[in-house]
Amino acid sequence: MKSPAKTPQRIFYSRLIGGITDETVREVVKDIDTANTDKKIHRIVLTVASNGGQLYPAFALYDHIRASKKPVDIVAAGYCMSAAVMILQAGRKRLSYPHTVFMVHPSAYKLDERRSYREFMMMVDSYKKEHDLFVELTIERSGMTKIEFEKIYEPRKYLTPEEAKKLGKHGLIDEIVKL
Fold this sequence. Notes:
The chain is an alpha/beta fold. The protein has a single domain (about 10-175), classed as 2-enoyl-CoA Hydratase, Chain A, domain 1. The protein is built from 6 helices and 7 strands.
């Protein structure tokens, strides 16, 4: 009697290249949704080469990756900075090519100076919450405390993959891909 043929495990590849915006995140979310509806696909590999960008789309992508029915492994390539480092933390596996440059820094907010005092204070309160969430999501898997992270990110810190792997108890990445 013949044993049933095994279905080969298929991988779906997606990319986030450049700044994190509504448009770039929309494409990756669409890719994750497509992969999750295809029964033949078993996992998703997202390559991230980004200088960071807007926090709200980054939060949306982070949550979408975490909610994916299929595992999403993320590979940092070339540069992984700011909000992109946070998105990297959502992956089942957090990988890096050997020549990737990581950058962490406090989140930044541009102000329009034509705001009332009340509006300004609401924006400051909102920004504080966004920044705290950004820090929390960026360090949650590393084992670093917020205080430890603040010590390395002020004003900004550039890291090699080896340095990113050693941060905290578990690092910002799990492994460096051998080429």
